[in-house]
Amino acid sequence: MIDWTDRHCRYFHRQISRNALLYTEMVVADAIIHGPRERLLAFDAEEHPVALQLGGSDPAKLAEAVRIAAPYGYDEINLNVGCPSDRVQSGTFGACLMLTPEVVADGVAAMKAVSKVPVTVKCRIGVDDQEPEAALPELLLRVLDAGADAVWIHARKAWLKGLSPKENREIPPLDYGIVYRMKERWPDVFIGINGGIQTLDEAAAHLKHVDGVMLGRAAYQNAGILADLDHRFFGAPAAVPDWGGLRDRMMVYAARHIASGGRLQHVARHMVGLFTGLPGARRYRQVLSVDAAKAGAGPEVIAAAFAAVDFSGAKAALSA
Q1: Which residues are annotated as a binding site for FMN?
Q2: Is the bond preceding residue 49 a cis peptide, omega within 30 degrees?
Q3: What is 304-319 written as a DSSP string?
Q4: Cα 72–83–106 angle (5° rounding)?
């Protein structure tokens, strides 16, 4: 979710679900050590609970990145061993680390030694010609022995050569069964599942077998599915979503961002998929995509976009 789940996206999603654990984009350990730390790590207090996702393979650098991030107050630190992009591979981290589970374990141990919050791992079921039934358990054995508190498994292989990141999300077949088997093997370990999950009904089905479900592009491209999440999975009372309240909160947030030197587009671009499937959604998307990008655009653009949507029957449509 690089370039997608930035602080503005997370703030927006938090206004829809108060309980979901939000993840940052993957941030490279070297960037935290040598780059603009405040820009990379700062976030709004309303985002909690929020996890910092790190990329890297050098245990010392990973540990230093965790130390630097500690004062920002993240609720979890996650090591990404699943991203298959070329620029990630060139830095020897991401999915290519599936080939060297001992390196991943060393990184986890170094992070655990300096972290006061849970350290978790996100991985694939294997890469290239690896046999998942052998490669995945080996990785889990090593990272759990190193102290990992949880493992999130994207239920697909990644092909490091020949497929683009987009193709790696679509072409390798999903194998949810192997993730279920890992949970059966490690019943006392938190194991979450990721990959191709599009609806809350699908999430509920997976939760019969594993401890957590991670939604990526489904939540980004149709954020409205988050509206019923707190009721279905966290015991919140059933309620009609307060879309007017969401509009007003995002307008206040956007105004604050603009006043600090930002642009409306930085915030509005993450809101485009909110009302997918509702009457007026096309006009809503158009206003946010076009008008929010204009020089001097202000929070009133958000109000204009919401005004284009017909909310009658919205709850039923968004809960589907």
Answers
A1: 53, 122, 154, 194-196, 216-217
A2: yes
A3: HHHHT---TTHHHHHT
A4: 65
Cα 150 from Cα 212, distance rounded (Å):
10
pLDDT tens-digit profile, the chain (320 residues): 677 799 999 999 999 999 999 999 999 999 999 999 999 999 999 999 999 999 999 999 999 999 999 999 999 999 999 776 655 544 566 778 989 999 999 999 999 999 999 999 999 999 888 999 999 999 999 999 999 999 999 999 988 776 666 777 677 889 999 999 999 999 999 999 999 999 999 999 999 999 999 999 899 999 999 999 999 999 999 888 899 999 999 999 999 999 999 999 999 999 999 998 899 999 999 999 999 999 999 999 999 999 999 987 555 444 33
Active-site residue among 9, 83, 96, 123? Answer: 83
Burial of 245 (0-12, 13-18, 19+ CB in 10 A): exposed
Which pTM was predicted?
0.91
Contact by Cβ (8 Å): 8, 267: yes
Residues 126 and 132: beta-carbon distance below 8 Å: yes
Residue-by-residue DSSP string for 194-226: ESS--SHHHHHHHTTTSSEEE-SHHHHHTGGGG
83 counts as catalytic: yes
Alpha-carbon distance of 44 to 50, in angstroms, equals 10
Tokens of 290: 């076009």
Which domains does the chain show, CATH number per domain? 7-226 (3.20.20.70), 243-318 (1.20.120.1460)
Cα separation, 305 vs 295, in Å, equals 17
SS3 131: coil
Query: Which tens digit of pLDDT belongs to each residue from 120-151?
Result: 999 999 988 899 999 999 999 999 999 999 99
